[in-house]
Design a protein that fits this description.
The complex is a heterodimer of chains A (about 350) and B (about 475). Chain A is an all-alpha fold and about 350 residues long. Chain A has 21 helices and no strands. Among the domains of chain A are: about 60-145, no CATH class; about 270-360, Leucine-rich Repeat Variant. Chain B has helices at about 5-50, 70-80, 100-105, 150-160, 180-190, 220-240, 260-265, 275-290, 310-330, 345-360, 360-375, 380-410, 415-430, 435-450, 465-469, and strands spanning about 60-65, 85-95, 110, 125-130, 140-145, 165-170, 175, 190-200, 205-210, 210-215, 255-260, 295-305. The radius of gyration of chain B is 23 Å and the shape is globular. Chain B starts with a helix and ends with a helix. The chains are: A mainly alpha (about 350), B alpha/beta (about 475).
Chain lengths: ~350, ~475
Amino acid sequence: MLAWLFDTAYETQVRAALWSTLAAGLATAVLFAYTLGLRFATVIGARRRRHLVARWRGIFATAVLSRADAEGELLPRIRRHQHSNLLEEWNRARDTVEGSAADNLIILADRLGLARTARGLLRSRRLSARLLGVQTLGHLRDADSRAEIAALVASPNTALSITSAVALTEIDAARAVEKLVPLITARRDWPRTRVSRILRKAGSARVSEPLYRAIRSGDDDEKIYLLQFAPLAEAEIVDALCDELIRTTHHPGVLTAALKQVSGHTGVPRLASLARHEAWYVRMQVAKVLGRIGQMEHVSLLASLLDDPEWWVRYRAAQSLVRLPFLGPNALRDLRERQEDRYARDMLEQAMAEAGLA
Amino acid sequence: MTAADFVLGAQWVFLTYFVGINLGYLSQNVIATMGIRRYLQTAEQFEAEGVFSALDVPVSVVVPAYNESASIISSVKALLQLEYPDFELVVVNDGSTDDTLEKLIEGFSLQPFPEAYRARVECKPVKAIYRSARYRNLRVIDKENGGCKADASNAGINACRYPLVCVVDADSILQPDSLRRIVRPFLEDSTTVAVGGTVRIANGCTVRQGFLEKVGLPSNFLALVQVVEYLRAFLFGRMGWSPINGLLIISGAFGVFHKETMVEVGGFNPRAVGEDMELILRLHRLMKAKRRPYRITFIPDPVCWTDAPETLKDLRSQRVRWQHGLGQCLFMNRSLIFNPRGGAVSWLAIPFYLIFELFGPIIEVAGYVFIIVCAWMGWLSWPEAAIFLALAIGLGILLSTSAIMLEELSFHMYPRTRDLMVLYLVAVIENLGYRQLTAFWRLQGLIRWWRGGQHKWETITRSTSLADN
């Protein structure tokens, strides 16, 4: 076979095939060995992790309960290969507690030198190590790392960027919110669930003002995007902002987003005219808002939406009517019978059946 | 043309095909490996959140069912336990001739419900709609038999109320967190219109109360080969196309779609044999025609487990149907081929599917016949033939090994080292007979498409291992 490989007289195709066969065989052998290596590394890693967890979980639990134990308990020696597992386990414990229990865990982490280890990870080439470092420093509220973490918020890597944003919020929520809210519209790659969690953690009192400013100054698209986070701001500020937007904007998307967020207060402007808006999703939101407000004077407006050409508008109008506390089953039945449109009657019947009033 | 010229020409055709298909698969492999690594780097961080806020999109889960009397109750019970904050379950009884509907009515205390149903996508008439007195998020649509899953799915889509629709086979086994995982691309990218996930073989696994309890390998050889086949098909076959937005199929066993976009394209096509693939191709076509930015995404997470055929008869029927469906889908959406605005779909994915997946069996079977004829006529150079055979088998094994490596690197669902070894063994053995057999069946499927075959609900014999569970 070796003679074929180097025999120049042999047909090129065949020699290429032979070389390719050998290359495929070699690649298969390498992949096979790598996979087995992965398997053994996983098994050994899991065993090491089990040992570490068995040893440290109790220590973390004791520290959570008692500051004296966090400060004074005799700690086992940490080997180098245990660092990552220990940080992960500490973060896991830290994720579950707040207040004094979290403070105790931070005291314990200081004694273990976890901040130094985590800072070292920030400069790692491995993304998972950097993420672990950022997460740990956030949980440690390590103000010394604030600038370094703030720089990572601009990372094009979504996970690193958003994890850094979370860590910043933990270190200094007020400053973090001021920095992060203006970035939200530019970072559409940030999952909305994570953004909402950051804002919730910061608290509505801190979020309201920067969010209000960002929504007011943003273009229509940015307004729509940011209004999703309005429930995380203070209700009075949201209502005032939404009323202003409903009064001033003609953009159906912004109108819808604002109507979605407005609470059930009585002064929502332009509802009667918006109930005839050309975009069905605006009319649907009007039906929902009318249901939230729950005023007798709006019954006829809601009833007029029952024969809307769009199914969703009819459905929301019927649901809102059924939920009005002052309309009992008999009144609803009367209302249904008075409807000339078959679709309107069907929809009210469905909504009543859903509410157990049929 | 002399016989020698013919043989030489044929050799070049086979060689070109061989080089092309393997380069294609190896490229997909590289793209998939990078994609999976990137996905896994972020997945843990995203999953670590664990908490879903009101911003999560509610999902309607549509379960088309035809004569599923034996398993419908456990399937629906399992689906009701999915870990997701807000979802509704819409079971569609497609005029079953057994007691599927009666079992549902009794099992879930269903009551007739006066729903203002609207037919937005084409399907056979709905006879009645029921709502469960016990589970507020469960509705059952009883409709006239439409003869296929597509028609039943469309009735379900019409009844859905939420912005995302998940279509799932009644016999699919899901992970409790399947919905949570598969919805993630919609949360990350608002242009996402469809998402699919990895489907795995459930034969040999332990299933309890409709959920997968323990992963294992089947004892049946055909099912075992399909485990490796599915690893290849999903971990790099689909993952390789997804990063370049060239995914052409999302498995009908479990996929999530943006409902309004789905309605806009007319839902599933009841005339398509491969209705799942046809829908994806039509989505590509519509979005490109309207010049709208969109993503059709695949996640490598094993979100759905399905029963694989264990007999030659069932397997043949499945493969013939798949090939028939492939031909029909590509033909129905032929305007996508080399469409100037089509991007990776038109210039890479469809040509690859057309040459190597659709017409591949012709070349493959012709290749086998060619070797036999050459051997018969004494034209075959045995050493050379052995080298090419070794190369073909070697590359086949390499691709399977790579898929097994990706599985180990990512989800390592087969915890026993023995299982890993069995998979490697199968990766070798499948090249000796199984692949040739499936190539022949695929050729039959191609002929059936050419002649124009009929489409109806497909039933396969359940594997004993699952039925016992």
